[in-house]
Amino acid sequence: MEKNEMIFDGPEDGPTVVLAHGAGAPMSSPFMNVIAAGLGAAGLRAVRFEFPYMRRRRETGERRAPDREPALRAAWKEAIEALGGGGRLVIGGKSMGGRMASLVADEMGARGLVCLGYPFHPPDRPDRLRTAHLADLRTPTLIVQGTRDPFGTQEDVAGYALSPAIRLLWLEDGDHSFKPRASSGHKEKEHLAAAVEAVVGFVRSLE
Questions:
Q1: pLDDT tens readout for residues 1-34
Q2: How many angstroms from the chain centroid is the CA of residue 14?
Q3: For residues 61 and 91, is the Cβ–Cβ distance under 8 A?
Q4: What is the pLDDT of residues 49-95, one digit of tens each?
Q5: What is the assigned CATH class of domain 3-205?
Q6: Fewest CB atoms within 10 A around its CB: which of 68, 98, 107, 140?
């Protein structure tokens, strides 16, 4: 993977956070734009890349299903190596992007892991857990999650065996993209700002 296939925000000498997109939206989605811009403004170097299927969609306009897990993991490793290796990188991303990062974080020696809306299970399928590797995860990890995320609510996650390396930040009434209902009294903008602040604090704590 070439660096010209990536988007960079923030100062070149800032602590680097590498982010991958979720299954259905590209690295330039509104969610990814807001998070990356916020991290960059706070002095971090935010780097975004796309998985092969999303790059093909951008080039051809053809909508494709996500690549299979081996290809997604390989893309993560390629991105990490293109940026000089895992030792100085915090890796993660939105939903599937963060989940795939969590599968390579220990192996690649990542400095830290950030998952923004982790897909603990498919919606309406709480029996199909994607948590087995999270019990033994060694990489320091921050998961930011909406309390009513259909991929894992606060009640769901309370029952999971998670590594002590994992910290959780819950955003009240947030959905999978942290958007709360109008009746909740919370605002999407505030939740996104809280997520950025949490990531910045987490990354700084690893320095």
A1: 777 799 999 999 999 999 999 999 999 999 999 9
A2: 19
A3: no
A4: 999 999 999 889 888 899 999 999 999 999 999 999 989 999 999 99
A5: alpha beta
A6: 68
